[in-house]
Write a structure and sequence with these properties.
The chain is an all-alpha fold and 152 residues long. It is built from seven helices and no strands. The chain has one domain.
Length: 152
Protein backbone atom coordinates (compact mmCIF):
# COMPACT_ATOMS: atom_id res chain seq x y z
CA UNK A 1 0.00 0.00 0.00
CA UNK A 2 2.79 2.42 0.98
CA UNK A 3 4.72 1.60 -2.21
CA UNK A 4 1.63 2.31 -4.36
CA UNK A 5 1.06 5.64 -2.57
CA UNK A 6 4.71 6.57 -3.12
CA UNK A 7 4.44 5.79 -6.85
CA UNK A 8 1.28 7.86 -7.13
CA UNK A 9 2.93 10.73 -5.27
CA UNK A 10 5.99 10.57 -7.55
CA UNK A 11 3.77 10.64 -10.62
CA UNK A 12 1.95 13.67 -9.25
CA UNK A 13 5.25 15.45 -8.62
CA UNK A 14 6.42 14.68 -12.15
CA UNK A 15 3.20 16.14 -13.51
CA UNK A 16 3.74 19.27 -11.40
CA UNK A 17 7.31 19.61 -12.65
CA UNK A 18 6.24 19.19 -16.28
CA UNK A 19 3.39 21.64 -15.79
CA UNK A 20 5.75 24.18 -14.28
CA UNK A 21 8.05 23.92 -17.30
CA UNK A 22 5.08 24.33 -19.62
CA UNK A 23 3.94 27.34 -17.57
CA UNK A 24 7.39 28.86 -17.91
CA UNK A 25 7.31 28.36 -21.67
CA UNK A 26 3.90 30.04 -21.82
CA UNK A 27 5.39 33.17 -20.28
CA UNK A 28 6.78 34.22 -23.67
CA UNK A 29 3.32 34.45 -25.20
CA UNK A 30 1.50 37.78 -25.00
CA UNK A 31 -1.07 37.91 -22.25
CA UNK A 32 -4.71 37.65 -23.22
CA UNK A 33 -7.24 39.78 -21.41
CA UNK A 34 -8.23 38.09 -18.17
CA UNK A 35 -5.71 35.23 -18.53
CA UNK A 36 -3.44 35.43 -15.48
CA UNK A 37 -1.41 32.36 -16.42
CA UNK A 38 0.23 34.23 -19.29
CA UNK A 39 1.26 37.35 -17.38
CA UNK A 40 5.00 37.80 -16.84
CA UNK A 41 5.96 36.87 -13.29
CA UNK A 42 3.15 34.36 -12.75
CA UNK A 43 4.53 31.16 -11.23
CA UNK A 44 8.01 32.58 -10.64
CA UNK A 45 7.87 32.07 -6.87
CA UNK A 46 6.80 28.45 -7.30
CA UNK A 47 9.54 27.69 -9.82
CA UNK A 48 12.11 29.57 -7.74
CA UNK A 49 11.31 27.40 -4.71
CA UNK A 50 11.38 24.17 -6.74
CA UNK A 51 14.64 24.90 -8.55
CA UNK A 52 16.32 26.17 -5.39
CA UNK A 53 15.40 22.86 -3.76
CA UNK A 54 16.62 20.89 -6.76
CA UNK A 55 19.93 22.77 -6.71
CA UNK A 56 20.28 21.87 -3.01
CA UNK A 57 19.56 18.21 -3.74
CA UNK A 58 22.19 18.21 -6.48
CA UNK A 59 24.82 20.00 -4.43
CA UNK A 60 24.34 18.12 -1.19
CA UNK A 61 23.16 14.68 -2.30
CA UNK A 62 24.91 14.24 -5.67
CA UNK A 63 28.21 16.11 -5.36
CA UNK A 64 30.39 15.45 -8.39
CA UNK A 65 27.53 13.95 -10.43
CA UNK A 66 25.25 15.39 -13.09
CA UNK A 67 27.66 18.31 -13.52
CA UNK A 68 25.90 19.88 -16.50
CA UNK A 69 22.53 19.84 -14.74
CA UNK A 70 23.97 21.08 -11.47
CA UNK A 71 25.67 24.00 -13.23
CA UNK A 72 22.42 24.81 -15.06
CA UNK A 73 20.43 24.62 -11.82
CA UNK A 74 22.83 27.08 -10.17
CA UNK A 75 22.46 29.43 -13.17
CA UNK A 76 18.67 29.05 -13.07
CA UNK A 77 18.49 29.88 -9.37
CA UNK A 78 20.82 32.85 -9.85
CA UNK A 79 18.68 34.15 -12.72
CA UNK A 80 15.50 33.70 -10.67
CA UNK A 81 17.17 35.44 -7.70
CA UNK A 82 17.93 38.40 -9.97
CA UNK A 83 14.42 38.40 -11.43
CA UNK A 84 12.79 38.40 -8.00
CA UNK A 85 15.14 41.11 -6.72
CA UNK A 86 14.38 43.33 -9.74
CA UNK A 87 10.63 42.74 -9.90
CA UNK A 88 9.45 42.43 -6.31
CA UNK A 89 9.59 44.29 -3.03
CA UNK A 90 11.32 41.41 -1.26
CA UNK A 91 14.35 42.39 0.78
CA UNK A 92 17.54 40.31 0.66
CA UNK A 93 16.59 38.97 4.09
CA UNK A 94 13.13 37.94 2.87
CA UNK A 95 14.67 36.27 -0.17
CA UNK A 96 17.06 34.30 2.04
CA UNK A 97 14.17 33.26 4.28
CA UNK A 98 12.14 32.16 1.27
CA UNK A 99 15.01 29.99 0.06
CA UNK A 100 15.45 28.42 3.50
CA UNK A 101 11.76 27.64 3.84
CA UNK A 102 10.68 26.89 0.28
CA UNK A 103 13.97 25.90 -1.33
CA UNK A 104 15.09 23.48 1.37
CA UNK A 105 18.32 25.43 1.90
CA UNK A 106 19.90 24.00 5.07
CA UNK A 107 17.33 21.18 5.26
CA UNK A 108 18.56 17.99 6.96
CA UNK A 109 20.05 15.45 4.55
CA UNK A 110 17.40 12.93 5.59
CA UNK A 111 14.73 15.28 4.23
CA UNK A 112 16.70 16.42 1.21
CA UNK A 113 18.24 13.22 -0.15
CA UNK A 114 15.28 10.86 0.15
CA UNK A 115 11.70 10.76 -0.98
CA UNK A 116 10.07 13.47 -3.04
CA UNK A 117 13.01 15.90 -3.43
CA UNK A 118 15.26 13.07 -4.59
CA UNK A 119 12.67 11.78 -7.08
CA UNK A 120 12.01 15.26 -8.44
CA UNK A 121 15.76 15.81 -8.90
CA UNK A 122 16.11 12.62 -10.94
CA UNK A 123 13.11 13.58 -13.05
CA UNK A 124 14.66 16.97 -13.75
CA UNK A 125 18.02 15.41 -14.65
CA UNK A 126 16.21 13.10 -17.09
CA UNK A 127 14.68 16.13 -18.85
CA UNK A 128 18.14 17.63 -19.33
CA UNK A 129 19.87 20.96 -18.87
CA UNK A 130 18.71 22.42 -22.23
CA UNK A 131 15.04 22.01 -21.20
CA UNK A 132 15.73 23.73 -17.88
CA UNK A 133 17.59 26.57 -19.59
CA UNK A 134 14.77 27.04 -22.08
CA UNK A 135 12.11 27.17 -19.37
CA UNK A 136 14.08 29.76 -17.37
CA UNK A 137 14.75 31.82 -20.51
CA UNK A 138 11.00 32.01 -21.07
CA UNK A 139 10.17 32.73 -17.45
CA UNK A 140 12.56 35.68 -17.05
CA UNK A 141 12.14 37.11 -20.54
CA UNK A 142 9.74 39.85 -19.45
CA UNK A 143 9.54 41.84 -16.22
CA UNK A 144 6.54 41.21 -14.01
CA UNK A 145 5.71 40.91 -10.35
CA UNK A 146 6.67 37.42 -9.15
CA UNK A 147 3.66 35.44 -7.91
CA UNK A 148 2.98 31.83 -6.98
CA UNK A 149 0.73 31.22 -9.96
CA UNK A 150 -0.77 27.78 -10.08
CA UNK A 151 2.23 25.54 -10.77
CA UNK A 152 1.26 23.48 -7.73
Amino acid sequence: MERKASAVHRAALLIVLCASIMLAAAQIAPARAGDDTLRPGVGVLCIWGIYTAMAEVGKRCHAGQDEEMQAELQRAVSRLDSYVAANSRMTPEQMAQFKREQGLVSAPLEQLCHGDPEHMYHDLVAQGAPALRSSIDAMVAHPGEPTWGDCL
